[in-house]
Each structure stands twice: as C-alpha cells, then as structure tokens.
TrEMBL record:
It comes from the Bacteria. The keyword Hydrolase applies. Belongs to the peptidase M16 family. Keywords: Hydrolase, Metalloprotease, Protease, Signal. The lineage of its organism: Bacteria, Pseudomonadati, Pseudomonadota, Alphaproteobacteria, Caulobacterales. The keyword Magnesium does not apply. PANTHER family: METALLOPROTEASE, MITOCHONDRIAL-PROCESSING PEPTIDASE SUBUNIT ALPHA. This is Zinc protease. GO terms for molecular function: metal ion binding; metallopeptidase activity. It is an enzyme of class 3 (hydrolase). Its EC number is 3.4.24.-.
Length: 947
C-alpha cells in the first residue's frame, strides 16, 4: 500500500476523532508523491519499468507496444486491433487459448486493448505466477503462431465485437464512426481503431504476419511490472526471457505524416441510424497533443463544463432547461493530436435546435467570461481526487505509467500533470477556450433515427468530405511462419514460485445507540475513504403497481436536503473531491460516498442531510421523473438490457423480483411525492441500515465519522418492516422472443432459479457457474466464442439474493446465428447436469473465483461492496476470510448435486432480443411454442409482459 502525503496537518484524530484536515477544503491537501519506479533498457531496446509494492496481494505484468490504429496498413483499418486478438492466442510453445486458461486457473485476470497510439497486453496474478507471465509475454513477442485457424476465428470474433459495441447500442455508430470520421481530416487518426466489416473481410493471413514482423519487437515494447515482487529476481527473469530476443534486421516502417491544414470553415453533418430513441448532437473542435502545455488548462475547462452535476453543461442543459438527458465535453489528447468533443442527448419532446442553442451559449460563455474562483477550485479538486483514486492499486499505478509513456514518452508525466493542474489560472482557462473552441474550425453533428432519413439521402451522409489519407503498405514478411511444436518438444512454462505475504484489512464493528450498525475496515494507507450506507429492503419492497419507487427515492435524496438545493449539494460534494452515488437493488438500497480523508467531516455533514432530511421537492420529482423515463427510452432500445429485464419477468412473474427496479415509463409517471415520502419514512431508518467505512481510517476514526454523520438519525417508534415472498413460486419455462427491428445484434439470455446467497448450496453452485461461464475459460466462452467465433463474449453469472437468485447465461451474436447460439447455451446448462466435472477442473475454477475475490477487495470500493453484501444477505463478517475456504471446499460431487438441484431436467427460461426476421424461423423449428412480442408492445410492468 503506497503511502501518500497530506500537507499541513496531522492524521491524528482530534476531539471529534476525525483527521484534522477534515474541516478544511482539500484542494491544497491532496498531494500524491511521485510514482515510484526504476527503469532500465536492455541491449535489444526493450524498456523495463519496475514498481514494487511489498503489501500488494497481486502483481501486474503489462507490455505496451508502440503500434496502434494509426499504423493500420492501407485498406486495412482495424488491423492493429485484429492483431491484438491474434497475438493473445497461440505461440510455438503455447497451444491456442492456453494463456487465458493459465491466468484464470492461477486466480488472475488478463486482457488487452488497442488505441490509436498503442497496443497493450496485461495480466494481474498472484505474485507466485510472475515468472510464468513474463515467459508468456516473451513467447508472444518472439514466437507467435499466426495460422489460418487463428486468423479466421479471431477475425470473426472482432466482427462480433464491432456489432456488439457499435451496431447494437443506439449511439455506437455516433461515437465510433460519425464523430470518429469527422474529428480529423488529413490525419493519421482519421480511421476507427476497430475498423469496418468490409476491410476486416478483405484482410489476409499474409497481412497479419507482415504486421507482426514490421512492428512487434523488443525495441518497440515497454514492459511494466507492478505489485508484490523482488526487484532483483525480476531483473534476472527479464534478462533470462527477453534479453535474447533479436530485433528484425529491417527498420520499423516509417510513415511520412500527411499535412492536415487547419480547418477554417465550419461543417455540419446529419447522420441516421436504426434504434435511436432520442436525437443526439455533437460539436467537434481540434485539440492538442498529450504533451502540449495547454492540456492541463483544457482538462480544467472540460471539468468546469462537464464533470459532475454542478458542471455548466449539466446545470444548463439537463437540470435547468431540461433540454437534454446528458451533456458533456471531453478533451481527448493523443500522442500527436487531440480533439474537444461536446455530446448531448436531447430529451424527449425537446427541439434539437433549442438544445444546440443552449450548448452554443455555454461554449460562448466559456470563451467570453472568466470562470469563477469557486469553479476553478472545484475543477482542480475533482481532477486531483480522481488521480488519487487511480493510484489505489498497483495495477492502477501501472496503467498511469503506461499511458504516459505511450502518449507523452515521459514516465514523469502523471506527476508533472498534477503540478500543471495546480498552477492553472482562470485566465488560462479562458485563453484556451478562446483558442480551441473556434467556431470556424467546428464540426456540428445531428444524429437521428433512421425513420427520419429523407428519401434519397445516402446511408453514408455523415462521411467527412475530406479524402482519407493514403497509409503505408507494410512490406511482406520474409521470415518463415511459426508452427505449434509437437507436445513432446514444447518448452514448459515456469512453475509458480512460493507465495508472498500480503496485507489483510482490519475489520471492526459497533452499533450506535440509534441502532445503526457501523463496520470499519482499514484497508489502505492512501488517504481516501469510502462510506456505503446499506438500507435493507430495496426494489423488492416496491408496491406491485409502483415499480421504480425505491429507485426514485434513492435518486431524489441527493436532489435537495437540509436546506441545500440539488445543485448546492452537487457543488459542495464536488468541491470536496467527493463522489456520491447508489440506487436500489433487489434486496437493499445503497448510498455510497468516496472522498479524500481530508474531506471526511464536511462530507459527513452533507451525508447526514441527504439521509435524514431530504426535501423531495415537487419540482425535483418532476425533473427526476423525466430524466428516468428518458433513460429508459435509451436502455430499452438495446438488446442486452432489454433481454435482462424481460428475463426477470419470465423467471419471477408477479413476484417482487420480477418487477423492473428502475420502473417503467408508465409506473414512473404515476409516482407521487406522498408515496416517496412514505417509502422513505418506512424503510430509511437507522435500525434498518448499516454504514460501512473502508479506506485509510482506523476503527476509532471510522466510528467517529459515523457518529458525527449519522449518530443523530432518529429511530422511529414503529415496528421495523420486513420484506417477504420476494422470489415467489417458480414459473414454468418459456422461450420469449422480442422483435427489435434494425437491431445490430441479437441478445440471448437463459436462466434457472438458484438458492439464496446465505444457503450453503450457493458455494458449489457458484463453482458450477464458473465452470459453465466464468471468464474466458468457461465453457460458454469456449463453445460460443473460442471455437466458433459467434460472439465477442459469452458468460454466466450467479446472482446473490436474499431469496432465490438466478443462474443466468448471456451473450450477443449476429442476428443470423441467434438460433444456433440458443442451442449452444442450452446445451451447456444440460452439460452441467449430465457430464461430471473432474477434480482438476473444479480446483481450477475454485482458484479462478478466489483470485477474483482477492482482487475485488483490494480496492476500498470493492471491499465496502463485499461487506455490504454480508449485511444484506445475513452473512458473518468473517465471510471475508471464510469465502475462499467455502469455495475451495467444493467437490465434483457437490458441484453436480448443486447444478442438478438448480437446473434439473427442465428447460431454462430463454429470452432472445433482436431483429427476429433473421432468426425466427430457425428458432421456431427448435422451439415451436415460443412467444414472439414486438418490442413496442412489451409491458415490463405486467407479470405477463402485456400478453
């Protein structure tokens, strides 16, 4: 746990028991020491950064390559991203998919990503597996296998990723294609990193081999190791596995950058797409490169405009004028250029022109007037607090370093940026606003539903009229391709080393006189704190005809309390560097506050008002009602979220768990202030709640914070309510199809009823769930993605509920393959019952679960969330120690017994949401009794979905 410094005060508790700084604004008190690292460069050019932390429970290994979307060859947009997938899969000594299996079976996690400037590969594992991870990275760098099987399969998966992230969401095309194509003109950043279906289809295996030979080498790579390890031992392993890798004789291809003349005339774009529930607008301005001296002032300007509910765009467009459901501006900086992009989703019934006028007015105000001293201080505090949180884990610190190296070439950039943020003045902000929010260089975008497209308007009406630059053609590979060696000739991966000790949180508990249960867990030296208030009940206590009541109540408590208006609450908390959020789950309502410890006392005072003295002003109810209904319009036009809501109704019917926690447009329209006040009075009470405090506070400091904040919360005389019959009787199996015309993908979800979280059977069923769909080594992922390339991912999850939860499998696929994927998903449910799982597989999945648990509780928020679960589900606090033991006690026989009990011999509940004309005939052949419902006719407020 890295120690962070606080300026000008002691951490010792004073008479209140809280840190002395808690009574002051934190703007000058949030100080992080420089990122601690050592650096060396091998003779072959590989740069190595070590960031040891002896108290961490994990070690993170990252390799960042200086190759990204900007290096995609001519006619091959998306190629760096495609190759990211290819390089993760197979080497001379590693069969296809084994890296992911090894990482998960070690209790770790892995992933990779591609940006315009970089491609990175990273794992976080228990420290004893560090050598193994270093060996796998050396394998991928020097000895990858790029064969036709890997190439074809990964290309298919990338196309599904594109469909899932771009074509399926209502605003995916806007972000990736429309804004992306118009953000730059003659620039290396012009093309989308994910590419296009057409150019992915045109790629060949020879292109992949040439790409690796051109760009992947030690001299283009940076290795970062962060966490619990011995630095001397690390040096030896790095020399052993990487020093002998030779750079290719040919230089890295050099691309002469096209000259992109400044844009001197504004441009307007209108784009259309299917399933756009609310119009959107955007404004794009040229920005600056990441190392430009104006980035700090632009970050502050962006924070004033759009960070938090006290920001100018939110206040004007969303809160005051109610013209938009969301509004923000992002200052994006990359290695060689940047953009400033404002995006607004227009509220239902509001005119696009009015939203544009309001956006323009705020941008003009930023140019024409100086921001206030309070706005400047708040923006700085928000940025510094966010940076503090990003340094909480060794993995987070590694990513800070990696991003700085690829975008600025400077390991000290994260710390330099903080100093630059502190020095920004109000005059600096106005100067950069005048310089970069240049209306002559603006691209204005309107994004509308396909139904509004005028006849004859081409589908690509949004395209930038400036020709796309001509990019490099990578020279052909000259080295012979690698092949997987026969098993008896392969080099074995290094065996795990000895386990290293790690710090454990210190947990203490006390009950205040008013009945509030207080749990404090000191988990870090980082001067941050997280307080989670858990109120038993949740959305399952909503009246049957009022779904959304608990959620609306939870949202409204922050929209005016204790004499403060909603904007005043937002401004006060944001000026303290605090984040607040929460909502109603099925069994409980949670309100979370995260803040620097220096703000604790002031944050506690606001929290007390929010919890005990909410205003529930009628005008705030109407505003929140409108925002919630607009949010539902967006969510329910996406196949995944809609499938999840429908599945709950199919599985639980009229029982409380079946109702949508966020309500429906119809139910939200009927909620009254009296109902909300009554709900708050009934359920929000100290003897029905617990406060969990995690972070750097000691037990006594945490208890003092709780007493100061909520010790005055009065316990009512009425008897404590108790939810009942939340899960209801099991419903008969059904297959339901929701027709969503124009949907870019189909969502497939299937589920069976499972045990309550406190049931001992939950543990073996959790292991069974991990076998079926936990991570990339789960059977669903292997069958749907790894073997057939039908999805970007396929997973299962076992819900934690006070009563019976669901074991749910879910995935998304192209519409044409929906029926096939349904078959595959159902086969995996049956396989859990009919095919015994061997002891090795059970042990591997147990390690996968316990490793994920350990990583989760490394953060203050994750630890607080877990302790909140113990409260909600009636588990002892010793569950933090017992969880791994309970999971690891699962035997193959216990797993199969739990799976058989949950799944039985019946058909799971099945929901498919997509463009049904592309799959309904095939699906009906297999399931002739399926029910088909047009999306426009689905009534989530009805136990029968409106049928």
């Amino acid at each position: 746990m890295t120690r962070f410094a606080l300026i000008g005060a002691s951490l010792l508790a004073l008479s209140t028991g809280l840190p002395a700084q808690a009574q002051t604004a934190p703007a000058t008190a949030i100080v992080a020491p420089p990122l601690s690292y050592t650096q060396r460069t091998l003779a072959n050019g590989l740069k190595v950064y070590a960031m040891p932390d002896a108290t961490a429970g994990t070690v993170t290994v990252q390799v960042w390559y200086d190759v990204g979307g900007k290096d995609d060859p001519q006619g091959r947009s998306g190629f760096a991203h495609l190759f990211e997938h290819i390089l993760s899969r197979k080497t001379v000594n590693i069969p296809y998919g084994q890296i992911a299996a090894w990482v998960e079976n070690a209790g770790g996690t892995r992933n990779a990503s591609t940006g315009q400037d970089f491609t990175n590969y990273y794992e976080t594992v228990p420290p004893q597996y560090l050598e193994t991870m270093l060996w796998t990275h050396a394998e991928r760098m020097a000895r990858p296998v790029v064969d036709q099987e890997v190439f074809d399969l990964e290309r298919s998966i990338v196309k599904e990723e594109l469909r899932q992230n771009v074509y399926a969401p209502p605003y995916g095309r806007l972000s990736r294609f429309v804004i992306g194509d118009n953000a730059f003109d003659a620039s290396i950043y012009r093309r989308s990193v994910i590419g296009s279906i057409e150019e992915l289809d045109s790629a060949r295996i020879e292109d992949a081999r040439a790409f690796h030979e051109a760009y992947y080498r030690p001299a283009t790579a940076t290795l970062i190791v962060s966490g619990n390890f011995d630095p001397v031992q690390l040096d030896g392993w790095v020399d052993q596995y990487f020093a002998g890798i030779i750079n290719p004789d040919r230089p890295v291809p050099a691309f002469e950058r096209p000259v992109s003349p400044p844009r001197t005339q504004p441009r307007s774009v209108v784009a259309y797409a299917p399933n756009v529930p609310l119009p959107a607008i955007a404004a794009i301005y040229p920005g600056v490169a990441a190392d430009h001296p104006d980035t700090a002032a632009l970050d502050v300007m962006s924070a004033v405009l759009s960070r938090g509910e006290s920001s100018r765009l939110y206040r004007s467009l969303v809160y005051d004028k109610q013209l938009a459901t969301s509004a923000g501006l992002n200052a994006g900086s990359q290695e060689e250029a940047g953009t400033l992009t404002a995006q607004v989703i227009v509220a239902a019934g509001k005119a696009i022109a009015d939203a544009e006028a309001a956006l323009n007015a705020e941008l003009a105000r930023m140019r024409d007037t100086t921001i206030t001293a309070a706005e400047l201080a708040e923006a700085k505090t928000e940025i510094l607090s966010a940076d503090l949180r990003s340094r909480e884990t060794s993995s987070g610190r590694a990513f800070l370093l990696g991003r700085a190296l690829v975008s600025e070439g400077d390991a000290n950039a994260p710390d330099t940026r903080l100093a630059q943020i502190r020095s920004v003045t109000a005059a600096d902000v106005q100067r950069v606003a005048r310089t970069y929010l240049d209306e002559n260089a603006r691209v204005s975008i309107r994004y509308l539903d396909e139904s509004q497209r005028p006849e004859g308007t081409p589908e690509d009406s949004w395209r930038n009229p400036v020709p796309v630059p001509t990019f490099l053609t990578v020279p052909p590979a000259i080295l012979p391709p690698n092949d997987l060696l026969p098993e008896d000739q392969r080099q074995s991966r290094p065996a795990p080393g000895p386990e290293r000790p790690k710090a454990a949180p210190m947990i203490a508990e006390r009950t205040l006189p008013n009945g509030l249960r207080v749990i404090v867990a000191r988990s870090t030296d980082l001067p941050i704190m997280n307080a989670q208030l858990v109120i038993n009940g949740g959305s399952s206590t909503d009246p049957g005809d009022k779904p959304g009541l608990a959620t609306m109540t939870a949202g409204l408590v922050t929209q005016g309390a204790g004499g403060r208006s909603a904007p005043e609450i937002a401004s006060t908390l944001e000026a303290l560097g605090a984040n607040i959020g929460g909502g109603a789950g099925a069994d409980a309502t949670t309100l979370s506050v995260s803040a620097p410890v220096v703000s604790a006392q002031a944050v506690g005072a606001v929290l007390a008002d929010i919890v005990t003295r909410p205003t529930f002003a009628p005008e705030e109810l109407e505003r929140s009602r409108t925002q919630a209904i607009n949010g539902l319009r967006v969510a329910l036009r996406q196949p995944g979220p809609l499938a999840s809501q429908v599945l709950a109704r199919v599985a639980y019917g009229a029982a409380p768990y079946g109702a949508p926690a966020s309500g429906t447009p119809a139910s939200l329209a009927t909620l009254t202030r009296d109902e909300i006040v009554g709900f708050h009075r009934q359920w929000w009470r100290p003897d029905n709640a617990a406060l969990i405090v995690t972070g750097s506070m000691t037990a006594e400091e945490g208890f003092a914070f709780a007493e100061q904040a909520l010790g005055g919360w009065t316990r009512p005389a009425e008897a404590l309510p108790a939810p009942t019959a939340r899960a209801g009787q099991a419903q008969p199996p059904r297959v339901v199809v929701i027709d969503l015309p124009g949907s870019g993908q189909a969502a497939v979800s299937a589920a069976v009823r499972g045990p309550r979280r406190a049931d001992p059977a939950w543990y073996p069923l959790s292991v069974a769930n991990a076998v079926m769909g936990g991570g990339s080594n789960g059977r669903l992922f292997q069958e749907v993605r790894a073997k057939r390339g039908l999805s970007y991912g396929a997973y299962s999850a076992l819900a934690s509920r006070a009563e019976g939860g669901l074991l749910t499998a879910s995935t998304q696929t192209k519409n044409e393959s929906a029926a096939e994927v349904v078959d595959l998903v159902l086969a995996e449910f049956a396989r859990l019952v009919n095919e015994p799982v061997d002891e090795t597989a059970v042990t591997d999945r147990e390690t996968f679960l316990t490793g994920g648990f350990s990583r989760n509780i490394e953060t203050t928020g994750g630890l607080g969330g877990f302790l909140a679960d113990t409260v909600v589900y009636g588990l002892p606090l010793t569950e933090s120690e017992a969880f791994a033991r309970q999971i690891s006690a699962t035997t193959p026989e216990a797993l199969q017994t739990a799976a058989t009990s949950a799944i039985g011999s019946g058909t799971p509940y099945v929901v498919v949401v997509g463009d049904s004309k592309l799959f309904i005939d095939a699906l009906r052949t297999r399931h002739p009794d399926l029910v088909l419902i047009p999306s426009s006719e689905v009534d989530l407020g009805s136990p029968t979905l409106g049928l």
